[in-house]
Specification:
about 525 residues, alpha/beta, eight-stranded mixed beta sheet, four-stranded antiparallel beta sheet, 14 strands
């Protein structure tokens, strides 16, 4: 390992569901290379993001902090300049920390007015990370690559447009873009498979590893797909037969007796199109194709790393920023607190011999997105029981007075997974996960007359229940033992009144225990008590 410290490869897809891997039993999609990664690491089945919107979810991963603490609760809400990211932690520890892909990071105009234009909103690579290759969806590097391969300006201007044959069947059906015949997602993109954004970003990741040489590095490889538009290059657009697509998880009762937010929100987010069986079957098939495309390129990347002698020197974390409904609950996209949106794939391969005992295991302990950063720090010897506090000085380490675990920066609110990777289960491991959604930016609350300050929802999920609490709207409660598909809201059932009261208290305890203490901890480290201790002799 470089200088005795492992490299870190943090891989994130965008909008990939936890159930869409062959290794977890999906009946259609094939992901042999992710399955191989899981066979050499640990697959966590109950990993949850803290927001199912790209920007705030990623800021939780990058800072190790909940949305209410890092203060970036929705897309394009600037991450405050005083928030430390994984790039800062690893860069300060002597790693070359870089980005290859997307971070959805908006710099803070309050910290530096020059970071934003007078009109509009500017996104850049995450603070603390070197911009090796930025691609939020249509990155300049990828578009330049397409030009160099001879693609016309029509492709450059609209790279995700599909190639519809002139003799395409005309059935009278039209998709959401007005194309008659089959749904548009059935057709291939105009760029070839070897020129896709997924292929290009993988090539650039390999180039970074070569460029880094023997220095320790931290690379965030962040793919744009399978995020919408759900279109794929040949052969991935037709890799799976729509007839094999499993039916959506939904019930007529969800529309017959809906939560007041559900029906208008599904209209706003394009869910009505998925009432059509042809649409959900085809788009699911193409969505699976996009996932297999990513898996194929991960196979190339993993082979490259083995050839270069990097495989045994690199901590690999694979996950996604949130999931996708593709018709479940009569919805498209993500956001509402269902498992299809919040439960994400999560694999950790720790190269050290201390993790040998758990290789190939699947674990059901609850994991949050906040856990990635403390895990990476501890594996690299930069914090926690395995570390030396290299991620910060003595005043910056967690423990009493701080939110972080002992040996970790106190601002971090997640937990290192290293004990689980060793086969140890801490007695105090979390028994639930939490999430937070600021929905003031949508049109549905405006239609419903909900004022911006009331547009907030919280969620807690444990092994028995999932509970949603809204400020000014009815509660939602699912009994997961009787209703694992989250199809029947029982919040109003008097038999569940005690469960609702308990879960509300747990939400309150969570918020009280996870307010921002990054400044409080600084003072506490210097003066942990006021005046003289009257309880000592």
């Amino acid at each position: 390992m470089p200088a005795g410290r492992p490299n870190v490869l943090f891989i994130m897809t965008d909008q990939m569901r936890a159930d869409c891997m062959s290794g977890v039993g999906h009946p259609v999609v094939r992901t042999p290379h992710l399955d191989h990664l899981a066979s050499e690491g640990v697959l966590f089945r109950r990993a949850y993001v803290q927001s199912a919107v790209c920007g705030p979810s990623r800021m939780c991963f990058y800072t190790g902090r909940y949305p209410h603490a890092n203060r970036s609760p929705w897309n394009e809400v600037p991450l405050p300049a005083d928030e430390k990211t994984m790039g800062h932690y690893f860069g300060e520890a002597g790693y070359r920390a870089a980005l290859c892909g997307k971070t959805h990071y908006t710099p803070d105009p309050f910290g530096d007015p020059g970071t934003q234009p007078e009109q509009g909103i500017r996104r850049v690579a995450l603070a603390g990370l070197e911009t090796w290759e930025l691609n939020e969806s249509r990155g300049e590097g990828w578009l330049a690559h397409l030009r160099s391969k001879g693609y016309g300006e029509d492709v450059i201007a609209d790279p995700f447009a599909v190639e519809i044959p002139a003799d395409a069947a005309r059935t009278g059906h039209a998709d959401h873009a007005g194309h008659a015949g089959r749904d548009h997602s059935a057709y291939p993109t105009r760029f070839k498979r070897e020129d896709s954004d997924t292929a290009f970003m993988t090539d650039r990741a390999m180039a970074f590893m070569d460029d880094a040489g023997d220095s320790p590095w931290f690379l965030h490889l962040s793919y744009f797909k399978p995020h919408l538009p759900i279109v794929a290059p040949y052969p991935y657009n037709g890799l799976y037969d729509p007839a094999d697509s499993p039916a959506p998880n939904r019930s007529p009762e969800e529309l017959e007796r809906p939560h007041p937010f559900h029906v208008p929100f599904r209209i706003e987010r394009g869910g009505v199109a998925y009432d059509d069986e042809e649409v959900w079957r085809q788009r699911r098939a193409t969505y699976y194709g996009l996932i297999t495309e990513i898996d194929d390129h991960l196979g190339r990347l993993f082979g490259f790393m083995k050839d270069r002698g990097l495989w045994e020197d690199t901590l690999i974390v694979f996950t996604s920023d949130h999931g996708e409904y593709v018709g479940d609950h009569w919805m498209f996209e993500k956001e509402l607190f269902y498992d299809e949106a919040y439960n994400v794939p999560f694999i950790v391969r720790d190269p050290r011999s201390s993790a040998d005992a758990t290789r190939g295991r699947t674990m059901d302990e609850f994991v949050e997105s906040l856990d990635v950063l403390p895990t990476c720090l501890e594996v690299c010897g930069l914090g926690g029981a395995d570390g030396t506090g290299g991620a910060g000085g003595a005043d910056e380490l967690g423990g009493p007075g701080g939110a972080g675990e002992p040996g970790m920066p106190p601002a971090l609110q997640g937990r290192s997974l290293v004990p689980l990777l060793r086969g140890e289960r801490p007695a105090d491991w979390r028994r639930e996960v939490f999430a937070d959604w600021d929905f003031r930016f949508y049109w549905t609350p405006k239609k419903l007359g909900i004022s911006p300050e009331k547009c907030r929802g919280w969620m807690v999920r444990d092994g028995r229940f999932k509970y949603w609490y809204f400020n000014g709207m009815p509660d939602v409660l699912f009994d997961l033992e009787r209703d694992p598909g989250e199809l029947r809201n029982v919040a109003g059932d008097p038999r569940y009144a005690e469960a609702v009261r308990d879960l509300r208290v747990r939400l309150m305890d969570w918020r009280m225990s996870n307010e921002d203490v990054s400044r409080v901890a600084w003072t506490y480290a210097r003066r942990p008590g006021f005046g003289r201790d009257p309880f000592t002799a």
